[in-house]
């Protein structure tokens, strides 16, 4: 039912009403929604041509036709979505942007997927995501081989042009934003396709598994920063023969510890030393810088963190507590950790972090601050505006957590 307003004012005749010349067009309304969801962070790199996103529907059709993905310069125009296409695909009923970034291990040195096996697996997931038109009309996919300028034929010396090389480097510098953005999807292909054998690969090929590769580890870590629980999907958990829709895909690909908690930049850098790179001399310092920048950007802006139903236990809660205790989320208002497996020790770690760094304004949404309360020590640390902490029923009685939430006026629910 619409809204009706009544007034005692006598209305002017229709011909005398002022004409609204600046009414926004449908595209302008979509653009405003795109930017409200943080799409402006992606506009520069999309507009520059450094990054091109593939049309999910084209990927599905190409895979179903038995195709193999070509490098960006060889793909047809219809393989891509424009910036305007992405804006038009932004849905007011969804909280995300129509952009997904793929994280996966290359299978050979010169081509990431020479038989199209991973193309078929990704297409299967995309088809499930697009199965409900109420949520997705179109989806742009960042797939490095098709989205960044590549060396067209390295064995025969056909390399990127100087201009393409500059755009390639610019694209690399924006990957942290693409993968860590709180409203983009990340699709993680964490397993090799059937029949792939590391021992069959040519010399110089990185044969490490997903979790041991430097770039895959970095992309996974970006995706684990501040995204909602259902925006980072582990496609390695898809079950053979199962018919998926968007809901069942999300359920299977988010449970059972498929996503790790965020890491402090120092912890990330230490772990990175154990990972394998094809070009570690250049890539390792680059991804360290990009991770730290993404960490500071996303946690600096975060007002809500939704780590619901991720299979996390005490170790993961303690890791998250370390991040919060660093002062990484100064604007945080709501933290959701329910439907996990966090026990007494995890609650103690969270309580200690909150107690160590609580600030004067650490309060529940409806609780007025005490005018006589002095600032606690370390007031600059953790989440000074945290208002609500969502945990499982059993955790709401954990003594240390209850005490610190009561002390600071946090709504423990």
Structure overview:
- The protein contains 15 helices and ten strands.
- It has helices spanning 26-36, 40-48, 56-64, 83-88, 117-129, 144-147, 162-173, 175-180, 214-223, 246-254, 265-272, 280-301, 314-325, 344-357, 399-408, and strands at 53-55, 80-81, 99-103, 140-142, 185-188, 232-234, 304-306, 334-336, 388-390, 411-412.
- Helix 5 links the parallel strand 3 (99-103) and strand 4.
- Helix 5 crosses helix 10.
- It starts with 25 loop residues before the first helix and ends with a strand.
Q: Can you tag this structure with a few keywords?
A:
about 425 residues, alpha/beta, six-stranded mixed beta sheet, four-stranded parallel beta sheet, 10 strands, globular, disordered N terminus
The strand count comes to: 10
Mean residue pLDDT: 86
Extract low-pLDDT stretches: 1-15, 358-384
User: What does the radius of gyration come to?
Assistant: 24 Å
| Order of SSEs | HHEHEHEHEHHHEHEHHHEHEHEHE
Major β-sheet annotation: 6 strands, mixed
Oligomer: single chain
Q: Which structural class matches the secondary elements? A: alpha/beta
Shape: globular
Measured by DSSP, the beta-strand proportion falls in 5-15%
How many separate helices?
Answer: 15
**Residues in helices, as a percent range:** 25-40%
**N- to C-terminal separation?**
34 Å
Strand order of the largest sheet: 2-1-4-3-5-6
